[in-house]
Amino acid sequence: QVQLVESGGGLVQPGGSLRLSCAASGIIFNIYTMGWYRQAPGKQRELVASITTGGIKNYVDSVKGRFTISRDNAENTVYLQMNSLKPEDTAVYYCQARRRGSVDYWGQGTQVTVSS
Predict the structure, then answer these.
(1) CA pair distance 82, 30, nearest whole angstrom
(2) DSSP assignment of 65-85, as one string?
(3) Nearest Cα residue to 16 out of 80, 68, 87
(4) What percent of the chain has pLDDT over 90?
(5) With 90 as the cut, is the pLDDT of residue 104 above it?
(6) In sequence order, which residues have a C-beta less than 8 Å from that of residue 1 and are 6 or more positions away?
(7) 41-88, pLDDT tens digit by residue?
(8) Cα distance between residue 109 and residue 90, in whole Å
(9) How far apart are CA 115 and CA 112, in angstroms?
(10) 18-25 sheet: strands from edge to edge
(11) How would residue 102 be classed by pLDDT, with cut points 50, 70 and 90?
(12) 3-state DSSP assignment of residue 3
C-alpha cells in the first residue's frame, strides 16, 4: 500500500518560514520524481516545485528564491523549505510521486496559513 504523509504545515506570520516533509512508503522512492503542489480556496491546484530522480529541481516563478525542494532517498522523504512566506502562499500543500508508466500518488495535504 502506497502512502505519502505530509507534515510541517501550520500558521506562520508573513516573512516567516516553514519546512514541509513528505514521507513515502510502499514505493521505490528513488525512481520517482517528487513534487509539491498547492491549492488555495477557489483556485486550481498548481505545481510549486519538483525534483527528479537525478536531483534536477523546478519551481514556479512565484516561489523562486524563497522555496527549496530537496529529497533524502535514504529516508524516503521529500522536503519543501519555505522562507519569506507571504499571505498568497496560504494553501493546502500536497506531495506527489510520479513516474512515467505509473499512476500518480498523492498525499492527504497539509494546511499552510500565512497571516498576521
Answers:
(1) 23
(2) TTEEEEEETTTTEEEEEE-S-
(3) 87
(4) 98
(5) yes
(6) 25, 26
(7) 999 999 999 999 999 999 999 999 999 999 999 999 999 999 999 999
(8) 13
(9) 10
(10) 3-7, 18-25, 77-82, 67-72
(11) confident
(12) strand
